[in-house]
Structure formats: structure tokens, C-alpha cells
Inverse folding.
């Protein structure tokens, strides 16, 4: 998301500090000395070291004027010291800002911003208003690298606010009360300008893999013991959504085990278009999806990924209460297994297990669950391989068959071996070093078969049922 910038009351330039005046004096003095030196020897031709006069030129004397380390070192040291002071001052402003967030002090938060731009100030007010709705136990800023001239944003900020403006990549480490004992890290890009004896924020953009809901629209927050629901703008979730999500969390724990957070964040955008914007997929067609789970990890070993279930309002509205339960169970299992984290894990096992669990004990018959797969088989189009990653693209016209075929493969493992055997295969595959061969090795080690044997049995089972 790009920020718009407005000219400040100083036409984009801040009054220089005493230090900047001193630096200009140093370089000004050096220039005067150099001019005096040239004026003192008007008959001398100054040439670089080792160069010779051009042929036919009048006799001359070549003088080399080296840059003295005794002059350059103090200037470099002063610049480095000022950079450290600037960074420390900016960090202090971020500390004030962080304290304002956790204390829910709107005025103190806004005091850290440069408020000449109505647009930027309005967005900052919306941000702190949204953060005030969240049960934040922790919210800390950490400077994570200064952006130089290669950053278009940094250049834009300097053009608008002057050469003293500084832009940083910033890590925000936050934790929601009751949602685990480790914080989550979100990425932001922030710009600052010196103003008086302090610095002010002039740009604040979320820059992670996904956009943060609190940056995009006004939120209303509903919290239960194991579900935090963020409702954006005019979105109207079904009254039973919170209860269904909570029941799905409990069911996932019973099925998968307790070695996961056992809590989930659910975001409900106001529209499918807003969903695409949040996922940085503007214009993408999500009409075939009722919901999806994502995870983003920007921290270290002491942090946890941001796991979110995003509800597609238009897709979710098309299904009944049972369908919503199935979808929530499916997506929350992805959160528990870590499938929401980008990986190269075999999607037939990942999606098939989530589909199997979603439909488990629902009473929905296989002719309904795998209707497209069975119809294609009756038409002579028996699948020749297990679904691959490309088959799960939302643009795939046979996306339903990819999910149905994966469900059939997992259901076959459960019926032929057991549900516990399926879970052993899944956990074994998660522990394999090479995702490309993870499922095959897990099948061999847990069931004594390979992928080719499973595929043959799977195809035969589909043909027999069709």
C-alpha cells in the first residue's frame, strides 16, 4: 500500500539542527581552504598523481593534494555518531508509540506523528482506534535496517520532507492476551523526520506478506476463550460463526492432538474485493473459496507465525450451517498442522486430510462429497495421478476434482488401514527433510506401500465406486 504525502508547513524541509550546521561549516571551511590554496599558486597546473602534461603544453608543475586521514576521520566519526544519535532518538519515539498502544492512549500515539497531512493523520487515527479494540498484551517496535536510495519509498519521503528524512524497515512484535505465550512479528516500513527536539512519523505502512486488517478498515472485535474474530467495516458475520469456530477448535484438538496453539484468529472482510486486497491479490477471483488459512512468520525461534483464517464473505454466504462447520474444521486443521505456512508439502495429503476431517461425522455421503470426481470417472476420465500443487490453483476449472480426489485418497487410507495410520503418515511426512519425497517415504515407513501403489489402489477404488 502506498502512502500519500502532503507538504509540511516548511515546504517539506525541517529546520537544520546545530549539528547539521556544524557539518556544513566543516565542509564550507574545507572549500575555502582549497580555494585559497589554488589562489596562492595561480601558475601551477594541478594534476592527479602520476599524470603528465599533454604534449606541447607549457612547462608546469604537477601537485598532488592527498586527502588527509587526519581530516577525513573526524568528519566520518562525527557522521557516524550523529547517525547513532538519530537512530536512538527514533527508537525512543517508537517506545513512546508502543507504550501508547498497550495503554490505549490515542492522543499520545498521535503525538508521535507529523500531522500536516489530513490523509495520513486519518489513517493513523484509524490504526490506533483499531488497536485499541484488540486485547494486546505486548506491542513493541524494533528498527530492522535503514532503507537507502534504492528504496522508492525512501526517495519519495526525502523529496517530500527533505533530505533529513529517514526510512526504516521495522519489526512489530505483538502478543494477544490469552493467545499463546510467544509473540508474533509483523513487518512495517516507517519514515521519520526531525522536528524540534524529537522525530515524527510521516509514513507507516504494513509491508508483510499479507496486509494487516487493522490497517485497512475499521474493526469490531469479538473474543471468546479460543477464537478472536475481527469484523471489518460493514461485514455481517452469521450469528453462529463464533460458536461454530469454537467447536471446530475443540474438534481439531481431539483429532490432531494438543500440540498446537488451540486458538484461532478469524478475519471477516467486508467484501471479496477487500479480501483480495488483504491477501495482496487485488482482482483475484476467490468466488470458489468460502475461507482460507494463511500463516506468516517474520520472527525468530522465540516468535510464532501469524495464523489467520480469512472468511470470504460472498463464498461463505452461499453455504448452509453444515457447510460452514465443514469449512471451519478444514481451515482450522490447517492452522493446527502448520499447513497454512508456505511449503512444498504434498497437497493431496495436506488438503485431503483437511477435507476428510471437515466431512468426518457430518453425515454427508460420498456421492455428494465426490460428485464431480465420480461423474468424470463415469465419463471415462479416470484420474491418472494424485492431485499436485498446480491442481489447487483457484484458476483451475477442475479445482473441485482436486479436493475430491485428495479426500478419496485419504479416506482410502483410513478405510484400508485406520485413522491413526493416516495421522502417523501425516506426522511422519512433516518430519521428513525433503518435502518432495516426504509423502512417499512416510507411506513406505508407516504403511509399507509407496505412492505408485497407493495411486493404483486409489484409482481402482474410484472406478469401483463410479
Amino acid at each position: 500500500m502506498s502512502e500519500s504525502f502532503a507538504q509540511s508547513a516548511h515546504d517539506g524541509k525541517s529546520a537544520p539542527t546545530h549539528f547539521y550546521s556544524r557539518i556544513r561549516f566543516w565542509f564550507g571551511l574545507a572549500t575555502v581552504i582549497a580555494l585559497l590554496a589554488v589562489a596562492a599558486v595561480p601558475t601551477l597546473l594541478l594534476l592527479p598523481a602520476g599524470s603528465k602534461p599533454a604534449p606541447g603544453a607549457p612547462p608546469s608543475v604537477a601537485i598532488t593534494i592527498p586527502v588527509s586521514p587526519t581530516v577525513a576521520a573526524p568528519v566520518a566519526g562525527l557522521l557516524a555518531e550523529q547517525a547513532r544519535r538519530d537512530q536512538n532518538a527514533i527508537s525512543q519515539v517508537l517506545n513512546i508509540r508502543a507504550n501508547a498502544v498497550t495503554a490505549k492512549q490515542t492522543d499520545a500515539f498521535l503525538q508521535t506523528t507529523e500531522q500536516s497531512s489530513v490523509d495520513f493523520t486519518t489513517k493513523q487515527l484509524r490504526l490506533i482506534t483499531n488497536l485499541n479494540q484488540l486485547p494486546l498484551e505486548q506491542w513493541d517496535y524494533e528498527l530492522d535496517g535503514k532503507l537507502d536510495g534504492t528504496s522508492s519509498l525512501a526517495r519519495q519521503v526525502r523529496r517530500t520532507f527533505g533530505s533529513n528524512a529517514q526510512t526504516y524497515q521495522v519489526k512489530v512484535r505483538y502478543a494477544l492476551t490469552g493467545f499463546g505465550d510467544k509473540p508474533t512479528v509483523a513487518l512495517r516500513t516507517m519514515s521519520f523526520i526531525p522536528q524540534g527536539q524529537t522525530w515524527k512519523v510521516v509514513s507507516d505502512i504494513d509491508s508483510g506478506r499479507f496486509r494487516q486488517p487493522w490497517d485497512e478498515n475499521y474493526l469490531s472485535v469479538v473474543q471468546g476463550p479460543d477464537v478472536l474474530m475481527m469484523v471489518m467495516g460493514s461485514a455481517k458475520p452469521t450469528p453462529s460463526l463464533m460458536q461454530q469456530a469454537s467447536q471446530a477448535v475443540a474438534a481439531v484438538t481431539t483429532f490432531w492432538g494438543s500440540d498446537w496453539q488451540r486458538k484461532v484468529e478469524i478475519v471477516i472482510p467486508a467484501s471479496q474485493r477487500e479480501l483480495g486486497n488483504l491477501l495482496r491479490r487485488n482482482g483475484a477471483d476467490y468466488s470458489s473459496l468460502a475461507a482460507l488459512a494463511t500463516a506468516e512468520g517474520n520472527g525468530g525461534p522465540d516468535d510464532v507465525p501469524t495464523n489467520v483464517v480469512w472468511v470470504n464473505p460472498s463464498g461463505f454466504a452461499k453455504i448452509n450451517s453444515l457447510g460452514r462447520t465443514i469449512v471451519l474444521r478444514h481451515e482450522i486443521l490447517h492452522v493446527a498442522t502448520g499447513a497454512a505456512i508456505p511449503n512444498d508439502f504434498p497437497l493431496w495429503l495436506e488438503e485431503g486430510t483437511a477435507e476428510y476431517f471437515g466431512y468426518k461425522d457430518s453425515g454427508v455421503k460420498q456421492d455428494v462429497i465426490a460428485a464431480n470426481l465420480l461423474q468424470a470417472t463415469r465419463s471415462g476420465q479416470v484420474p491418472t495421478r494424485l492431485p499436485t500443487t498446480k491442481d489447487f490453483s483457484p484458476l483451475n476449472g477442475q479445482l473441485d476434482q482436486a479436493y475430491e480426489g485428495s479426500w478419496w485418497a485419504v479416506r482410502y487410507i483410513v478405510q484400508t488401514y485406520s485413522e491413526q495410520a493416516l495421522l502417523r503418515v501425516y506426522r511422519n511426512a512433516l518430519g521428513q527433510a525433503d518435502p518432495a519425497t516426504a509423502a512417499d517415504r512416510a507411506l513406505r515407513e508407516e504403511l509399507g506401500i509407496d505412492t505408485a501403489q497407493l495411486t493404483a489402489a486409489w484409482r481402482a477404488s474410484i472406478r469401483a465406486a463410479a
About this structure: The beta strands are 136-146, 166-176, 184-195, 198-206, 219-223, 227-232, 264-268, 291-296, 306-311.
